[in-house]
Amino acid sequence: MSHNFGISAYPPVTAAWRGTDIKDDPVTQSNKKGYITFATSGPIREPRKCFINLQDNTRLDKMGFAPFGVVEGDGMRVVIMFL
């Protein structure tokens, strides 16, 4: 389970990113609870969407989902409040 976010509500910003490709990072950490990861659907990921893992999702590691940050401390309590 995870929660997606990252698409701008401001149409010109969304349009500026449309069609932009960002190469995937190598997976160097596991998709554990609290880790922030870009959404991907193949060798070039969707640069406008990311998600916070709400539980351990280690199955995503072998699928190329590379975490780039982590929510620490009481931050997860705040993330859950957004759901």
Note down, in words, how this protein is organized.
The chain is of the alpha+beta class and 83 residues long. It has one domain (2-81): Cyclophilin (Beta Barrel). 17% of the residues lie in helices and 24% in strands. It is built from two helices and six strands. It has helices spanning 11-17, 75-81, and strands at residues 2-5, 22-23, 35-38, 44-45, 50-53, 67-70. The protein has a four-stranded antiparallel sheet with strand order 1-5-3-6, with no helix packed on it. A two-stranded antiparallel sheet has the order 2-4. The longest helix is centred in the N-terminal third of the chain and has 7 residues, at 11-17. The N and C termini lie close together (12 Å). The model has no long low-confidence stretch (mean pLDDT 82).
Amino-to-carboxy terminus distance: 12 Å
The averaged pLDDT comes out at 82
Q: Bin the helical content.
A: 10-25%
- Mind summarizing the main beta sheet? 4 strands, antiparallel
Q: What structural category arises from helix and sheet content?
A: alpha+beta
DSSP strand count? 6
Number of H- or I-type helical stretches: 2
Give the helices and strands, then pairings.
Elements: E1 2-5, H1 11-17, E2 22-23, E3 35-38, E4 44-45, E5 50-53, E6 67-70, H2 75-81
Antiparallel strand pairs: 1-5, 2-4, 3-5, 3-6
Summary tags:
four-stranded antiparallel β-sheet; alpha+beta; two-stranded antiparallel ribbon; Cyclophilin; 83 residues
In a nutshell, what does this entry contain?
The chain is of the alpha+beta class and 83 residues long. It has 2 helices and 6 strands, in the order βαβββββα. A 4-stranded antiparallel sheet has the order 1-5-3-6, with no helix packed on it. Strands 2-4 form a two-stranded antiparallel sheet.
